[in-house]
Specification:
- The chain has about 290 residues and is α/β, with parallel strands linked by helices.
- The chain folds into three domains: about 10-50, no CATH class; about 65-140, GMP Synthetase, Chain A, domain 3, CATH 3.30.300.160; about 150-285, Rossmann fold (3-Layer(aba) Sandwich), CATH 3.40.50.2300.
- It is about 45% helix and about 15% strand.
- It contains 13 helices and eight strands.
- Strands 5-4-6-7-8 form a five-stranded parallel beta sheet, sandwiched between helices.
- It is elongated.
- The chain starts with 8 loop residues before the first helix and ends with a helix.
Length: about 290
C-alpha cells in the first residue's frame, strides 16, 4: 500500500492562492526549502519573489525588504547561526528583532533566535535565492570571531567576569545584584578613567557594561579607548543609555558596542542581553554556561 506523501506547507499556500498547477502540485515535507520554493514557482509560472508575496499573505507577514536592512542588525546573530537557520536580521528595537526567512513556520528557529538575541522575534518573508544572496553579502564565510575568549575551565571557577561601569551607585548595585544572582563575578568602576585603569591592569574581564552619560568621561569616549587598545579591542561591551533615539543607537554600534540596554534597567532582560552577547562571541564556551 502506498504511503501518502506529507505535503510541504508551501503546497497549501499555492492552493489557497489558486496558483496555476496548484491542485496537482506535490512537494514532500522533507524537501529542502530552496527546492520547494523552486518547484512551486515553476509550476505556477511565477518568480520566487512573486511567490514570497503569496506566502506573506497566507501567513499574514510582511515581505522582507532586504535592500533596506539595518547594517547593525546582523550583530545580534552570529554568522554560523544565521547561515544554519537561513535567516537575516533586518532591524531591531530594545525588545524586538525582525528577521527575514523563507520558512515562516519554523518555530524552533524562532525560539533559537529569541534565545540568542534576547529579543522577541518577528518573521518577514523572503525567497530562498534572495535570502542566500543577502546572507552571503552580510556574513562573508571568511568572517571569524573577533574575540578569543578564555577557556571554559576559567569560567567554571566563578562564572564570567563582568566590569560594571556607572557613576550612579544605586545603578551599580542593581546591576551587581542581578549579575551575581545569575552566577557572574562582578567588579565595579565609578567612572570612565577608573574603568580604563582596571582594564589596563590586566584583570581579565569577559564583558563590560558601560553607562553612556557619565560626568567624568562620556561613555562613548570610554568605548573608543577600549576599542583602540589591542588588549581590549574585542572585549564585549553592552552600553546602558536612557535614550532610545535611533541616532544614538547607530552611534553606539558604529563605535563598536555589542548591544545596548535602555534605562531604567529591567534586571531579567539585562541578564538575557549579557548572556546573548557572550553566546554570540563564543557559543562553544558560553552556550554551555547559559
Amino acid at each position: 500500500m502506498d504511503i501518502p506523501v506529507i505535503q510541504h506547507w508551501i503546497v497549501a499556500v499555492a492552493r489557497a492562492a489558486r496558483l496555476k498547477g496548484a491542485e496537482n502540485l506535490s512537494v514532500a515535507s522533507d524537501t529542502p526549502m530552496a527546492g520547494a520554493w523552486s518547484v512551486t514557482a515553476l509550476s505556477a509560472g511565477i518568480s520566487e519573489d512573486d511567490l514570497a508575496a503569496h506566502v506573506s499573505v497566507h501567513y499574514r507577514l510582511a515581505v522582507a525588504d532586504l535592500s533596506t536592512a539595518d547594517p547593525h542588525a546582523p550583530k545580534l546573530l552570529p554568522s554560523r547561526l544565521a547561515h544554519k537557520l537561513q535567516v537575516l536580521p533586518l532591524r531591531y528595537t530594545d525588545r524586538s528583532l525582525w528577521v527575514a526567512t523563507s520558512d515562516p513556520v519554523a518555530m524552533e528557529a524562532e525560539r533559537e533566535i529569541a534565545h540568542v538575541s534576547g529579543r522577541t522575534v518577528h518573521f518577514e518573508v523572503a525567497s530562498p535565492l534572495a535570502l542566500a544572496q543577502a546572507l552571503h553579502a552580510t556574513y562573508p564565510s571568511s568572517r571569524a570571531l573577533r574575540h578569543e575568549l578564555p577557556p571554559l575551565e576559567r569560567q567554571a571557577k566563578g562564572g564570567p567576569h563582568v566590569l560594571v561601569v556607572d557613576d550612579d551607585a544605586d545603578t551599580r548595585l542593581l546591576l551587581r545584584r542581578a549579575l551575581e544572582s545569575a552566577g557572574f563575578r562582578v567588579a565595579e568602576a565609578a567612572d570612565g578613567p577608573d574603568a580604563l585603569t582596571m582594564l589596563q591592569e590586566g584583570d581579565l574581564f569577559d564583558l563590560v557594561t558601560l553607562d553612556l552619560q557619565m560626568g567624568e568621561m562620556h561613555g562613548l569616549q570610554v568605548l573608543n579607548v577600549i576599542r583602540s587598545r589591542i588588549a581590549t579591542a574585542d572585549l564585549p561591551v553592552v552600553v546602558a543609555t536612557a535614550s532610545d533615539d535611533p541616532v544614538v543607537e547607530m552611534e553606539l554600534f558604529e563605535a563598536g558596542a555589542d548591544d545596548f540596554i535602555v534605562k531604567p534597567v529591567d534586571p531579567p532582560r539585562f541578564i538575557l542581553r549579557v548572556q546573548a552577547v557572550l553566546r554570540r562571541r563564543d557559543p562553544k564556551v558560553f552556550g554551555k554556561l547559559f
